[in-house]
């Protein structure tokens, strides 16, 4: 009989109470170990130059062969510390991972009692209530059914099978507890497919709709992988730190958000997560790094800075994840990413594990990305670059000069419909930083509390603006594309594309700030003659997402040259994930998303045109 995830968590809790050979006792008292001695085996000889130990092998959980790339030929349990809890158990799914395959990292580094609880509540006191609520799915607000019918495409060799529940994957007790604290009842489709692939140690290029849980899909395997690894001795070079995993993201705010999430997932596991991003004092980040780091979440610029100061080495990186990977590999970031991944001291592809995630993946970017991957699996949940059906999309024809009054009408209507006279959160996207400031000012003087986020604001101002928006204190946020990707702000009811982007992928990410995690949302776009190149991809995208396409937009679409999409639309069926490796025609100067049949003018944009979809002369709003 299949047990539910909640059951398995309960079972594993009772197993903890029953001692057996693989029982990992919880330490009763924290033992402080200075940073330079952390993660060492008990018998480590001091002052060894370079990495002394390879990753230890681990195999056999839930039918998945784990960490295979490191396992061949390496010695087995002797690598671990002697005594209970450090052996190999081949822990069985459903036992919640309480077997001895897990490293009790807290043994030598018990930070559990000193760690700030990142959760609002203390689950230990509320376990029963919480479990009940999870089983009823009441306090998640997640409409899981919305994800059930999404088609999935995988390609690559020996793709590990997906799972249906967290219980089927042996992530370990401590991580399972945190998943429960996050109120995740069952994995979303991207998690069902990506987690077993990543746990098997495979490289992955994964594409899934905005708000569908990609962050956990790469964080869980990384945390679980680090927890499983036997103590890895890291080089000891004065003031240089050696993380085991690196997660790169394009914006400061997104890096902070991933860091917050990863900290929740790794709470009390002994896995230490640190964030480094530009615009914030580097000394503070250095101090934090020196306290110990297993997973580093970073923006590329600050990371390069740390590497050049020799305060950080990538020599021990086992897991590399690029969130918003297509953005990370477009013209703006690609040189920096190449430098980080190929020209510093990071282990080569095939030695490290590399995972790329995004909601959009143009073919040309897929091709670039393949340089970083080894024998990878391509996974697409839903159509690559599609938007979720959970978002109601509206397009209105609005002349440039009428945009402000039109926005005002929308905001008035929203205020009237809002609960308790409160304004629902509205995110308004504009093209330029100046435009953002000017619109914010105008909204404020017209009685609509608004704030802005863009690259010309100081980091402190940006963080303040985001907090004020998230808490509802300032319910309108006027933003450039710096807020387009990844940000997970609950209760964003409405995204307004005051200025449409030039690229349909940017549109997909922008509207994806609403309608997240199974909830519904509304997106309104102001379209006019300045957006003709977007007419076709926009009409197609809306059609795909079962949205009502206005007749005037269809007319524009039929007349318009195909642009605004880096040639992404192929006019194929409703679903088409499209691993570029499957396109035998690729490389013959066709469109990036496959199917050369539609490659009319505008298709096959050379890669030098990449830059986040900005037209010539328009400054990128990214930082
Ligand atoms: N299994 C789950 N059960 C319930 N909620 C989940 C689950 N997985 C993720 N979530 C929640 O769904 C929301 C969206 O997740 P996340 O930010 O990872 O999406 P994403 O796919 O990375 O989106 P984007 O493409 O915009 O970056 C978050 O609030 C997250 O906590």
From TrEMBL:
Keywords: ATP-binding, Helicase, Hydrolase, Nucleotide-binding, RNA-binding. A motif (Q motif) lies at residues 164-192. Residues 82-102 have a biased composition (Gly residues). One of its GO terms (molecular function) is RNA binding. It is an enzyme of class 3 (hydrolase). Residues 107-117 have a biased composition (Basic and acidic residues). Residues 164-192 form the DEAD-box RNA helicase Q domain. It holds the Pfam family Helicase_C. The keyword Mitochondrion does not apply. PANTHER family: ATP-DEPENDENT RNA HELICASE DBP3. This is RNA helicase. It comes from Gossypium tomentosum.
């Amino acid at each position: 009989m299949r047990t539910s995830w909640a059951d398995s968590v309960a079972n594993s809790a009772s197993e903890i109470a029953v001692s057996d050979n693989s029982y990992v006792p919880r330490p009763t008292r924290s033992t402080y170990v200075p940073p330079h001695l952390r993660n060492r085996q008990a018998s480590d000889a001091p002052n060894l130059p370079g990495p002394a130990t390879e990753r230890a092998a681990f195999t056999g959980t839930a039918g998945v062969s784990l960490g295979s790339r490191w396992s061949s030929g390496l010695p087995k349990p002797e690598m671990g510390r002697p005594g209970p809890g450090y052996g190999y158990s081949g822990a069985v799914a459903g036992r919640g991972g309480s077997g001895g395959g897990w490293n009790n990292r807290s043994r030598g580094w018990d930070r559990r009692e000193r760690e700030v609880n990142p959760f609002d509540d203390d689950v230990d006191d509320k376990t029963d209530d919480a479990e009940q609520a999870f089983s009823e799915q009441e306090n998640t607000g997640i409409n899981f059914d919305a994800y059930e019918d999404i088609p999935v495409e995988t390609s690559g060799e020996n793709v590990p099978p997906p799972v249906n529940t967290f219980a089927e994957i042996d992530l370990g007790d401590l991580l399972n507890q945190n998943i429960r604290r996050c109120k995740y009842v069952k994995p979303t489709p991207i998690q069902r497919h990506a987690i077993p692939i990543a746990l098997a140690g495979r490289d992955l290029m994964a594409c899934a709709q905005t708000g569908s849980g990609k962050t956990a899909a790469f964080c869980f395997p990384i945390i679980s992988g680090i927890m499983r690894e036997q103590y890895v001795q890291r080089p000891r070079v004065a003031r240089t730190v050696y993380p085991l995993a690196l997660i790169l993201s394009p914006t400061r705010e997104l890096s902070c958000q991933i860091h917050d999430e990863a900290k929740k997932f790794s709470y009390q596991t002994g896995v230490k997560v640190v964030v480094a991003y530009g615009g914030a004092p580097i000394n503070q980040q250095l101090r934090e790094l020196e306290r110990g780091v297993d997973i580093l979440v970073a923006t590329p610029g600050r990371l390069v800075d740390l590497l050049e100061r020799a305060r950080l080495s990538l020599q021990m990186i086992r897991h590399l994840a690029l969130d918003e990977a297509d953005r990370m590999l477009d013209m703006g970031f690609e040189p920096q990413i190449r430098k980080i991944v190929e020209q510093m001291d990071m282990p080569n592809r095939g030695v490290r594990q590399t995972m790329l995630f995004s909601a959009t993946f143009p073919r040309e970017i897929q091709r670039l990305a393949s340089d970083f991957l080894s024998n990878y699996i391509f996974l697409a949940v839903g159509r690559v670059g599609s938007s979720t059906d959970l978002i109601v999309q509206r397009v209105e024809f609005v002349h440039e000069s009428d945009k402000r009054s039109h926005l005002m009408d929308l905001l008035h209507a929203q205020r009237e419909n809002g609960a308790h006279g409160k304004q629902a959160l509205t995110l308004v996207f504009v093209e330029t930083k100046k435009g953002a400031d000017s619109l914010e000012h105008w909204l404020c003087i017209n009685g609509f509390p608004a704030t802005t986020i863009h690259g010309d604001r100081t980091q402190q101002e940006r963080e303040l603006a985001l907090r004020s928006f998230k808490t509802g204190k300032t319910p309108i946020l006027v933003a450039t594309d710096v807020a387009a990707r990844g940000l997970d702000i609950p209760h964003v009811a409405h995204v307004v594309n005051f200025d449409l982007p030039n690229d349909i992928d940017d549109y997909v990410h922008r509207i994806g700030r609403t309608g997240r995690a199974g909830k519904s949302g509304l997106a309104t776009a102001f379209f006019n003659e300045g957006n003709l190149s977007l007419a076709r991809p926009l009409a197609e995208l809306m059609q795909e997402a079962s949205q009502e396409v206005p007749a005037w937009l269809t007319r524009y679409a039929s007349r318009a040259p195909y642009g605004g999409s880096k040639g992404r639309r192929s006019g194929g069926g409703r679903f088409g994930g499209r691993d570029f490796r499957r396109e035998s025609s690729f490389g013959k100067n066709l469109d990036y998303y496959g199917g050369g049949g539609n490659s009319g003018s505008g298709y096959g944009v050379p890669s030098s045109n990449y830059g986040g979809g900005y037209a010539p002369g328009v400054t990128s709003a990214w930082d």
